[in-house]
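Give me structure tokens for this 427-residue protein.
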Amino acid sequence: MEFDRVRNKIIESCAWRDGLKWLLPLCIFLFGVTCMTVKGCANIFLFLAVLLSLPLLINSRSDRWSLSIFAVLSAPFLVTVLQLSVGMQYVSHKALDAPSRFFLAGLCLFALQQLSARRLAMACWGTWLGAFGVMAWGYISIHVPEYSWGVDASRGWNQFSNPIPFGVYSVILGFLALGLPIAGWSGWSKKMQWCIGVGGVIAGLVAGYFSGSRTPFLIVPPLVLIIILGATAWDARRILISLLSAGVLALFLIMGTQNKLHDRVSEGLTDIQVFQHNQNTSMGLRWEMWRTASQIIVEHPFAGVGKQGYYDEVNARVKKGQAPVIIMAAPHPHNELLNFGVEMGIPGVALGLMLFLVPAGLFLPRIRARDSLIRFSAISGSVVVVGQFVASLLDTYFWIVSQTAFYGVWVVVFAAIIFARRRELAA
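Here you go.
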């Protein structure tokens, strides 16, 4: 009787754990659908994924790569906790919000890699629906006054991300949709995969266009390069010729017709021309913010000034005549690495770099892997990391919870697929 009771408990436990292994991919699927389309859902499905991951952490296994990714995702949260514990002037409990999403996503890594690699990869189809969702938001927010951003309703958004990050993440979602795996498809039907994926790319690009931002289209060339490297066996010469030809064609279409992107590019060129005598432009403001942020880092090289410190430091400098009045309203310096430096000093700049370099070290060398699932994950992970890095040179994203959740979750998901697939191949 005792043996039967123990056996039944083991069977029930296995069934329960198997149920979690279905619910976790569902969370990832719904995260992809809603993270940039429904306010609050990035947090909801991240928190739910963490709760579902906890029982699986008991049997988790780790190696050098999984520990490294967890470490870099946890570090911003732990540094902020340290700043809070020593009573830094410009650090409050609210400063924990954004970096905590990195930490929570990192916890999920140890559970997600226990799942079936294909099941987890199929869950990424949520990004395809998400790409069409942001395209719908872009259209609605421009054409329906109740949902508009600003007074002229000329730029699309999703009600919780301003047009720049909305456009950037829309384009990333579109490119994530390009190489999604389709279970059981082969032969000619496999070609339909690319047709469906191209639809997702177009949806993401249209949403980026609706945003009226230039940054989403600055990340397109490196993302196209990643796709070409992963999907073809072309040599460097052929890739360069293809990129240059596509770039010239795109530039001709943009600048040769009257459209929203044409106007924004022209504005950027004008900003550069008038910079010497007018800094009150998009690029001029950025330059002044970068210069001021660099000065703050030099003066506070070891610990920075904390999350809320930039705004107060800038305003203090304006009063002393050390910074222009035009940058007083900005809450951050519009550059991710400089923002890390302002918050945490020179160690923060290094930490910011590691947030990109460590995942890139996992993904980029594997974008031509023979195994299709590893290749898919490496390409998709590279799209997230490289796209985010290029965009982060011109703005700050990791101070908003939905945006840290976006980066953290997708880095973890694509890393987990690689780890799970390697385990399956080894078995």
